[in-house]
Amino acid sequence: MPESTSVPVVEASGISKRFGATVALAEARIAVAPGESHALVGRNGAGKSTLVSILTGLQRPDTGTLRFLGAPAPAFGDTDGWRAKVACVYQRSTVIGGLSVAENLFLNRQSAPGLRPIRWRQLRERAAELLTGYGVEVDPAARAEELTVEQRQFVEIARALSFGARFIILDEPTAKLDARGIERLFGKLRELQEQGVAFLFISHHLQEVYDLCTSVTVYRDARHIVTAPVAELDQAALVEAMTGEGASHSAPAPAAEPQPAAETERSAEPLPAAEAERSADPLLMVSGLTLTGAYRNVELTVGAGEVVGLAGATASGNVRLGETLAGLHRPSAGRISVAGKAVRTGDIPSALAAGVGLVPEDRHLQGLVAGRSVAENATLTVTDQLGPCGTVLPSRIAAFAGRMIEDLDIKTPGPDTPVSALSGGNQQKVVIARALATDPHVLVAIRPTNGVDVKSKEFLLRRIRQVAQAGRAALIVSDELDDLRSCDRVLAMFHGEITAEFAPGWSDEHLVAAMEGMARGHAADAPARGHTDPVRGQATTEIEEDHHVSHD
Ligand SMILES: Nc1ncnc2c1ncn2[C@@H]1O[C@H](COP(=O)(O)OP(=O)(O)OP(=O)(O)O)[C@@H](O)[C@H]1O
């Protein structure tokens, strides 16, 4: 722990928590000093979310003590007491979509006399005052569901501070933000830190830990492993603490300094392109595809044996394009064909029958059935293979699921465990297992490594590579550079159009610039293949050297 004379805003020690036979936390501890930005990292299932639920009063630990600024934690169930101490901004929103920002900020406060008629104007004025006070530029009259993820997080932070909390937990807050959103969020957190607000920051993006935090705590297998100033623990040591394995040569290189294209490192254990299996035949062909308000006139092919990246920031249209391929949206124009056959657009069963497998963006909304078991979730797409004449044989489900659990290294007590009892990263693996279960011709994976730890990320990307090596095609839709680095080529989208194409060896700087709209409608790095520029309606020209906008 860093030297500090001040009383910690939060100090938990000897915390243990079991769920049945699963030990989620074993004698774990953490302490966060005022004004500190403290990272908590660990592999999937290490116990981070369980600690968060204990620190926020949502669950009682089996053993251990918890103090806020030296005082014992509020009684279990004393909602207002907990709110005044701590708040957590989750990846998933806790604001109520149908209510206005002002209502979200002030309703349900016990301090506000419940029976008095609500004075809306006054409510909005107070909300405006509060938001302005924290430098949050959001209209208090706006409905919460209209906010961007970033605005919603700022509202949640302002709400927490207005309850008096000076300790805020951020659980994977950057998972749904693009590069600029992350920059703005970090800017705001630094500002608040200077005012003495302390943060516990949970992220699988280790670079963010170095960018934002002063100290880091590592948990492994439910236990506290180390707490140190980030400056004293380089990434190799951090990954070593997380995995318990000796300094790994496959730890991702720190991404602080963009490297020249030719030197851009891949993971030291490369995910080799399947040259042998690659064929010139496109397995996926998309032409003139338009979804009003999302993307227009998209031309795209993915060959057998290829892994193609579809990069783009939040509003680029890349996610909606990926979803369209799986039948989730009906495009207003254009064609999709798989293995030479036209697919009925806007129809999920047709896409599935044509051999499109989807890893959806949001595993909670589109991915998993919470009350069902790991086995049921993993086999939802293949029930026809699990028994004769529409029946489902439990023995076959179990055998099928057992293979998937092993294949994807899913940490679960067993196939019958409800999927909701798995840690976030392991739930994501179930979603991927389900997409792979159909042995798709074309795998569309949207942010496939969302929420998974650094080691599992390598593993999953390698698994996607195997799909291509088996002569299939994969499209990775993502803004994660690690995801995109594993691709044979990357298409960048901006404002609904494919604006550039990148061959392997691209530099982070160029790809990020393209995702931010600075590719100026041509390939920023040498394109791998000819590709029709939708902006100009002509083929992109090969460009050999640096085309970052500032060099033009
Ligand atoms: N409600 C629950 N019932 C049963 N087991 C649970 C429950 N909640 C968590 N667990 C188990 O406790 C362990 C710790 O899970 P936790 O969610 O805290 O991990 P995590 O570090 O947050 O992982 P991730 O990075 O994947 O989100 C896991 O093995 C998980 O399956």
Automatic annotation (TrEMBL):
PROSITE patterns: ABC_TRANSPORTER_1, ABC_TRANSPORTER_2. Coiled coil: none annotated. Keywords: ATP-binding, Nucleotide-binding, Repeat, Sugar transport, Transport. InterPro entries: AAA+_ATPase, ABC_carbohydrate_import_ATPase, ABC_transporter-like_ATP-bd, ABC_transporter-like_CS, P-loop_NTPase. Residues 251-262 have a biased composition (Low complexity). Residues 10-246, 277-520 form the ABC transporter domain. Residues 243-277, 522-552 are annotated as: Disordered. One of its GO terms (molecular function) is ATP binding. Signal peptide: none annotated. The keyword DNA-binding does not apply. This is Simple sugar transport system ATP-binding protein. It comes from Kitasatospora kifunensis (Streptomyces kifunensis).
